[in-house]
Design goal:
- The chain is mainly β.
- It has one domain: AttH-like domain (AttH-like fold, Beta Barrel).
- It contains no helices and 24 strands.
- Strands 2, 4, 5, 6, 7, 8, 9, 10, 11, 12, 13, 14 and 15 form a 13-stranded antiparallel sheet that branches.
- The radius of gyration is 19 Å and the shape is globular.
């Protein structure tokens, strides 16, 4: 497939609230503003999602304003014992008032209620994440203090429209492979991320969505052969004819990929077998990866059958080969990551 590298800058949307230039970039090229959105407020979906992992534990932190509902959540994934806990706070009809910044490069999040406190702040050279929740899976609360720095040179930025609705769009940036330090407490469990193995990623999403969508997303990051390897892979919604979001990173340098299929095993009736090996392949013969699952973080949120999110975020390891832009064959051996299928109605 062809991938259009965005060359424009300035406003993301035109005066009619439509995307000016779909495609991909390595840094954010456009300015995002609610002022130019012509769709109703309840269709605007803004979020920051951070994931930190060292191969033993992973922590996921989400802060999102989805128009008619807000979601603030934390998850701890115990990779050694193949278990996970997720807790969420729901906010009714925030309508863009939760303070989600318009940029991935500046602007902070600071929010709290009686049960939860969140701060995602830019600091010198990095990002400081603070999160506290007083209830967490029957334990005596959860708290995390994390610092992400050494941001890679390149990131995955994609601008995606929907063919059926010219005012719907997704402006997304994935920063994969930042150094992570700090730790978390879950009840009596305390775990430290020392920065030697732990890495973090940011999924920064802004846009106007249609009501019913399914996405497939996968990311991995780790140290192999003296290099920091990572990738972002995904598909499933919108009109991606201008570009895919598939990208490999070697020491922070991006290598663009085409279209992929995650090869999730299925029964004859279409039921997914998430905990059996997946086979990732692409349309250019550059990707041949086996994903070996460890734990399925299945989280279902259903609010009066109107707002629904059915998520299977499966953590495990990737092994196989990928081909870099210059034709070099790169072997990948037990790289920590996840792959997910998520169905949303919101």
């Amino acid at each position: 497939m062809s991938n259009h590298l965005i060359t424009g800058s300035g406003a993301l949307l035109n005066a009619e609230g439509e995307l000016r230039e779909p495609g991909y970039a390595l840094r954010p090229p456009f300015d995002y503003s609610h002022d130019r959105i012509t769709a109703p407020w309840w269709r605007i979906k803004d979020w920051d999602y951070y994931l930190v992992s060292d191969g033993t534990y992973a922590v996921a932190l989400t802060f999102s304003d989805l128009g008619y509902i807000g979601l603030v959540s934390a998850a701890v994934i115990d990779l050694a014992n193949r278990s996970s806990i997720t807790e969420s706070e729901l906010v009714l009809a925030p309508a863009g008032r939760m303070g989600v910044p318009a940029s991935s490069e500046e602007g902070d999040i600071s929010w709290h209620n009686r049960h939860c406190r969140v701060s995602f702040a830019h600091v010198a050279g990095g990002r400081r994440l603070s999160f506290w929740m007083d209830h967490f899976g029957g334990h005596d609360g959860f708290e995390a203090e994390l610092l992400l720095d050494k941001e890679p040179q390149d990131s995955m930025v994609i601008v995606t429209p929907w063919a059926e609705d010219p005012t719907a769009f997704y402006y997304n940036r994935k920063i994969v492979g930042m150094r992570a330090r700090g730790g978390f407490r879950r009840g009596e469990l305390v775990h430290e991320f020392d920065g030697s193995e732990a890495l973090g990623l940011l999924d920064w999403g802004r846009g106007v969505w249609t009501y019913d969508n399914t996405w497939f997303w996968s990311a991995a990051m780790g140290h192999q052969a003296g290099k920091v390897l990572g990738f972002n892979l995904g598909y499933g919604f919108g009109d991606t004819s201008a570009a895919s979001e598939n990208m490999l990173f070697v020491d922070g340098v991006a290598h663009k990929l085409g279209r992929l299929d995650f090869g999730i095993p299925q029964d004859a009736d279409g039921t997914y077998r998430y905990l059996e090996p997946w086979h990732f392949t692409d349309d250019e013969g550059r990707v041949d990866l086996t994903f070996t699952p460890l734990v399925d973080r299945n989280d279902l949120i259903d609010v009066a059958h109107l707002v629904m999110s059915d998520q299977h975020q499966v953590f495990g390891t990737f092994s196989g080969t990928v081909v870099l832009d210059d034709g070099t064959l790169l072997a990948i051996d037990a790289l920590d990551g996840f792959a997910e299928r998520v169905h949303n109605r919101y």
